[in-house]
Amino acid sequence: MSKRLLAMLTVICLLLACIPLTASAAEAAEAQPVEIQLSVGSSAVSIDGTSSTIQKPIKVNGITLVPLSVITKAFGAKLKLENNKKITLTYNATTVVLTIGSNKVSVNGVVTTLPAEPKIVNGVTMVPVRVITQAFGANIALSGNKITITGTKANEASPTAGGTAGIDSDAGMTKIGDSYWGWSMQYPTDLTLKSQSDNGDWTTWTGGSEDPNLIVSIEDADEEWTTDQIREHIETYFDTNEIVLEKKTISVKGTSYERYVTKSRSGWFFEYRAAQKDKRVYVVMAGAKSESREALNKYGPQLDSFTISFDKSNRTLKDITKVVDGMVTIHDKDYGLQIKMPANWHRLEDMTNPFFVSDEGLISFSLYSAQSGETAEQWRASERENVESDFAAGYIRNIEESTIALNNGTGQVLKYQYSWDQTKWISEYDIYYITGNHKYKLKFYYTKDDAAKEQQLYSTLTSSLSLDTKFIDDNFGEVDDDTELEKAVTKKTSKEYGYTISLPKSWSAIDGDFEEEEVNYATTFGLFSINVETRDINAYEYGNALEYYYKTEASEKAIGTTVKSTSNQTINGTSFKVVETESPKAERPFTTLHYLVDRPGYDGILILTVSFNRAQDTEANRAKVTKVIESLTFQF
What we know:
CATH superfamily of the largest domain: Mog1/PsbP, alpha/beta/alpha sandwich
Strand order of the largest sheet: 17-18-19-23-22-21-20
CATH architecture of the largest domain: 3-Layer(aba) Sandwich
CATH topology of the largest domain: Protein Transport Mog1p, Chain A
Largest sheet: 7 strands, antiparallel
CATH class of the largest domain: Alpha Beta
Number of helices: 13
Strand content: 35-45%
């Protein structure tokens, strides 16, 4: 079968597939007309009279390929990209499915063969223009390399499928920006809005691949940054293998930008521009995978159009802000969680569970397996007991219990205040909820001394909190409760230095290589460390040296460190010299215990150091440390 005949049959099949879906005459009369003018080999495009630049249309096997997003934007079609390959377009009742690298197309379930397969060029997805537009019921007129497409906009243009705030349906918009963060730029016609951070301070566009081609990022700054500080900030965006091709200061429309052009060894070229306005630093980046940096040239007008302002009166300026009245609604589909919080709160991306912070406090969400017969009231009672045993007298106050109505049940609330120095107090609200196979905990800390704002924020958080517990039960299996880790220990052995010790699994390794001279762990109440001193010195001599250090060292004097006591103790048959100090003037006052023990069969000593936040220097926490010290054994 000839390619020409194959192409004709493809078009006929597509047209036949569209016949049953043709809109009624009344609907057609109300539909908005669409006209696209573009040319093979030219980066210029006109959509309904509005001009912009795109990836140049090309011809493959005599078939014209154009940027996918030009079609979706003009016609208001929904776009969904799966696995970086499968493309699903929805236009009214018509569904077109293509796959990058495949010559098969499906229109409303009818599969035919394309004369040219979709492909990615310079990071932009290029598709056969005639197949898609005719599936949308549009007409195509050719005049040399010039292509004119006429049709109608979708009846109900929608955002990009998958929940992303799409820009493909915004025909007539010539600019895009964020009213809350205060920026705008030319509408990126041949790119699709791929993702936004929870509050919109990070936005990416793509031409069809998983890698973004355009990024806008905003970061708060407490003071005016120097040129070097702004450049250092740009460099934090680099991959480890990026080569700097150009670095200089430029001026665009009266705004001074620091500009970098780089190349990665993976074949990507990038241009970065950064500028500061008031207490915000704005970075706009463009990237293209290519053999030459010339691929970045097409993004020049886009970057030049970036402005640190937003004109709310401009009706052609699309506002993609996620912020409404200073608040954002977080949708965490992985955890079935929805909650509203202030826009200045930020998600900690390196945390697996939802965790948000600001200078006002933090919010965290966690879930665990529910034990048979366990109730939220029992869970709260157990947690209250742990809290009361974890804080020393005078460092915890105003403990209250209450209930709260959630979207699908009643949560149990434990509220209290604690302090590290008995001066500044932190409010904590813990919400416990059990249903189905899992139990849920939401923690809200508020650090400011503003009771009215604290209550307002707590009310906003709890009233907007929604849990999809069915999703959790369907997708999560058994998840151990962190509190159970307090009862579990893990044995650690140092072959190099000849000792073994058992630590609670709840302690988190900072430096956890026991074949090194120093080991450090974060505990639930402070810090724990092990140091090996291989010099010819014994515990008694080291203890004297330690006392002298605390009495003379300027940095220790600054935080009021004094030696509270020294003693000789035998723990589980092992003799220790114990030096206890306290540092009451530290930002977070603390007490430190040094356990010094001679290394049998080796030169030098082993130093086990435990620091307690003074607020958590309790009998219960000291008992945990005693168990750790008791577990120490030597191999000799």
